[in-house]
Amino acid sequence: MRIISGQYKSRKIVAPKNLPVRPTTDMAKESLFNILNNNYYFDDISVLDLFAGTGNISYEFASRGTEQITCVDQHFACIRFINQTAEHFEMPIDTVKGDVFKFLEQTNAKFDIIFADPPYDFSQEQFERIPELVFKKELLNDSGTLIVEHSKHTNLASTANFDVSKSYGGNAFSFFKKQ
């Protein structure tokens, strides 16, 4: 994987082979950040990266100047890799090792962007639980956005607070906003 833009543009990050992850493709990531770039000043926002995996999305935010980034993943090896990479590049990334759903139920922090990249084999109910918890707990700032990455075969359009979905190859991003 590589960082597309910002301070660390074109830097390659090689994750260990044994991580249980499916990193967002460069094409999908570039498209996502083109959308976000039109709506946010990256150095002014706070980001929560759920199911963070390799930290791919968080590194992109950090490279673009975001100073408040929190990654949550349940796998120790993923958290260790994110911590090592963030330290190597001196990126302002905090990590939490734990279950994403428990984290969402327990946190009171608010974010401008919440990005969730759960396993594509999640059930419809598991996918829908993410926006349900985010909006029930009011975890987004007023102009905040929840983005859920999923297979193009998953449809979240009938989920509360759904705004729009964008597809790139086999990936899709569903955007949710306060109504």
UniProtKB/TrEMBL annotation:
Keyword line: Methyltransferase, Transferase
Pfam families hit by this protein:
Cons_hypoth95
Q: Which Gene3D superfamilies match?
A: Vaccinia Virus protein VP39 (3.40.50.150)
One Gene Ontology term of the molecular function aspect: 16S rRNA (guanine(966)-N(2))-methyltransferase activity
> Which EC numbers characterise this protein's activity in its record?
2.1.1.171
Q: Which residues cross the membrane?
A: none
User: Does the UniProt entry include the keyword Methyltransferase?
Assistant: yes
Which InterPro entries does its entry note? DNA_methylase_N6_adenine_CS, RNA_MeTrfase_RsmD, SAM-dependent_MTases_sf
Kindly report, in one word, the top-level EC class recorded for this enzyme.
Answer: transferase
Chain coiled-coil ranges? none
- What is this protein identified as? 16S rRNA (Guanine(966)-N(2))-methyltransferase RsmD
